[in-house]
Structures are given as structure tokens and as C-alpha cells.
Design goal:
By secondary structure, the chain is mainly α. Helices cover about 65% and strands about 0% of the residues. Helix 5 crosses helix 6.
Length: about 150
């Protein structure tokens, strides 16, 4: 049952990304180009997402537990460390250069567009490289990055 709900949620998310054109790197890059040909239309998408998410989280977290699990799986870390700053910077740099971030890129795989496929392949390689660096070079296990 959990897999069916996850599939439905993923399809809704991917459909929303497609309808809002968040999977189109040119659209995203024009949104990020505030000094040039700025296209503010994606601000409506982000605003709509926040308008639903913020009250939704407040409402849902009042429950003792989720409907399909025994407990909520929320991040516990609240400190800002170098790992967070470097990771956030790399994420923003990649988003600004490619016009893609992980969610829209994975959803965009259905288009078969080679730039999107290339982005996802290099993104996965970057994940693996970071895992190798943390596990072998720094000799420490990577923290569990799963939120849910």
C-alpha cells in the first residue's frame, strides 16, 4: 500500500512539474535571470507550493502519527556546518548553470532529452563520488539523508 501511495504522490509531483514547466531548463534559467530577460511566472508555482505546504505541514504534524507509518520521519539536525553550506552552494550553482535540480531532472527523464539524461547521470555520479569521499577518504559513514 505504501508503494502505491508513493507512486501516486510521485506521479502528482511529476505532473505538477510538467504542467508548471519546472522541467524545462530554459524556463528555469529565465526565472533565475533577474538582471536580463526575467520570467517571474515560476514564482507563482513556488508561491502556490508554499501556500499549500506551510499550513499543510502544521495541520498534519498535529496528528500523533502519519496515516501509513508509525511515526513521522523529520530531519533532526538544525546546525549549519560546512557540509551544509558547501552542499547548498553546489546545489545552487548546479541549478543556476543547468536550470535543473534533482526532482525536475528525474521527472524530466520521461522526455528522453539527452541533456536531462546527462544531468541525471552526472548527478548520480556526484552522489557516488561524495559517498566515496566520505566513506573512504574522510573515513566516516555518510549520514542518513532520507527525510521520509
Amino acid at each position: 500500500m505504501n508503494l502505491v501511495v508513493a507512486l501516486i504522490a510521485g506521479l502528482l509531483f511529476g505532473g505538477g512539474l510538467a504542467i508548471s514547466q519546472m522541467m524545462d531548463p530554459a524556463k528555469v534559467l529565465s526565472f533565475l535571470d533577474v538582471a536580463g530577460q526575467w520570467d517571474p511566472s515560476l514564482m507563482l508555482v513556488m508561491g502556490g507550493a508554499l501556500a499549500l505546504t506551510v499550513p499543510g505541514f502544521r495541520l498534519i504534524l498535529r496528528r500523533p502519527q502519519p496515516l501509513l507509518d508509525g511515526r513521522f520521519h523529520l530531519p533532526s539536525a538544525s546546525d549549519v556546518d560546512s557540509r551544509l553550506v558547501i552542499g547548498s552552494s553546489l546545489f545552487g550553482l548546479g541549478w543556476g548553470l543547468a536550470g535543473l535540480c534533482p526532482g525536475p531532472a528525474v521527472a524530466g527523464l520521461v522526455t528522453g532529452a539527452l541533456p536531462i539524461v546527462g544531468f541525471v547521470v552526472t548527478m548520480l555520479a556526484g552522489y557516488r563520488l561524495m559517498d566515496l569521499i566520505e566513506n573512504r577518504v574522510l573515513d566516516r559513514p555518510a549520514p542518513d539523508a532520507r527525510v521520509g
